[in-house]
Write a structure and sequence with these properties.
By secondary structure, the chain is α/β, with parallel strands linked by helices. It is built from 12 helices and 14 strands. It binds nicotinamide-adenine-dinucleotide and serine.
């Protein structure tokens, strides 16, 4: 049995990715690992390990001894949290990547998934339909770490034949777990307040357009990229990926179709400057060409699904 590990499994993406991978490979073949003591959503169905990605020796021992061949490395600080602790964010976002890339270079790991972000772009990047190849001058520590990570992934592929694959995820929207401290989190928070019948205080201004994607699409994209034949992949830094783009005001109008009395007010904070430096929409034609990517969720489908499934009791921990 070839084993897979998801590191950072308890987060917004990990909780859904582990379930999808277990469906595909079998529960016992997919190890969920995170620095957290446990993860109730994942413990029941398969192996769970407490693991700190910064503990290089423990990670190496685990992967080598258990003969783990496929690694999904999700542990990171996201954009807003990273700005509050830039030194640690740089360390966490980079050191773990080197640990896994080196294991692949030495032949212990055969395939790596490492997510990048729309945060690799910056204020000098064309903001509409941002191309795969363009100016990249990120201004956040998160964006700088993701851009550096992309360059290292491509370097390890070119120099050491490491099969590392990556997606520049847009803001991800989901209902099974809460987001972990990003600038796009408003587009998840808003649904909880709408369901609770409360006015939502939005930390971005009403006309801030950002690229977004429903989690089901993001998980499917991840699995499709990881399944794609090696020779079809022309991008070894990270693929642009697009779902749908919208502003807080457009999202509110869509929610109001289901909850007409819903209200939003705007109180932009430090995250506004981050959002203003990111693309409004993404050109993902290379992903469509190379591995037949196509999104399923438009804004109306996404809003309907979120409102049907969001459970405000999640907010109580
Ligand atoms: P998240 O914050 O929800 O989850 C990250 C997980 O990593 C948490 O469970 C956390 O406990 C764990 N972790 C933190 N430090 C760790 C350590 N030292 N060792 C092991 N685990 C540790 O993040 P997410 O939204 O699931 O994002 C996962 C990855 O996807 C990140 O690399 C992020 O940059 C990237 N990404 C996410 C989005 C998004 O919208 N969610 C968009 C673009 C890129
Ligand atoms: N959703 C992420 C963030 O806002 C984008 O990488 O940080």
């Amino acid at each position: 049995m070839s084993k897979t590990i998801v590191i950072g499994a308890c987060g917004q993406i990990g909780t859904e990715l582990v379930i999808a991978l277990r469906k595909k490979h079998g529960n016992e073949a997919v190890i969920a690992a995170d620095v957290k003591n446990d993860c109730p959503a994942l413990l029941a169905d398969g192996p769970y390990l407490k693991l700190d990605i910064l503990d290089r020796e423990s990670v190496r021992t685990l992967i080598i001894n258990q003969e783990i061949k496929e690694v999904y490395l999700l542990a990171a600080l996201l954009s807003a949290t990273a700005e509050k602790n830039p030194d640690f964010a740089w360390r966490l976002n980079m050191e773990g990547l080197f640990t896994i890339l080196d294991l692949a270079k030495e032949g212990f790991v055969s395939k790596i998934f490492w997510p990048s972000s729309i945060a690799v772009f910056g204020p000098t990047t064309p903001r509409e339909h941002t191309p795969q190849y363009t100016i990249m001058e990120p201004t956040t520590v998160y964006g700088i770490s993701k851009l550096a990570g992309e360059r290292w992934c491509e370097y390890y592929f070119n120099k050491h034949h490491v099969d590392v694959r990556s997606i520049r995820y847009p803001g991800l929207i989901s209902y099974t777990s809460l987001p972990g401290g990003g600038t796009t989190d408003y587009a998840v928070d808003i649904f909880y307040q709408a369901k609770l019948g409360k006015t939502y205080s939005c930390f971005l201004s009403e006309n801030t357009a950002l690229p977004m994607m429903f989690m089901e699409d993001a998980i499917r994209a991840t699995l499709e990229l990881m399944n794609a034949p090696k020779e079809k992949l022309t991008v070894r830094s990270s693929y642009n990926l697009s779902g749908c783009s919208f502003t807080p005001s457009e999202l509110t109008s869509e929610i109001k179709k289901h909850i007409p009395e819903f209200n939003i007010e705007y109180a932009p904070d430090f995250r506004q400057a981050i959002a203003d430096s990111w693309p409004k929409s993404i050109d993902d034609s290379q992903a469509r060409l190379d591995w037949d990517w196509k999104e399923k969720y438009s804004i109306d489908h996404l809003v309907k699904t979120m409102l049907e499934n969001v459970d405000p009791s999640l907010l109580n921990g």
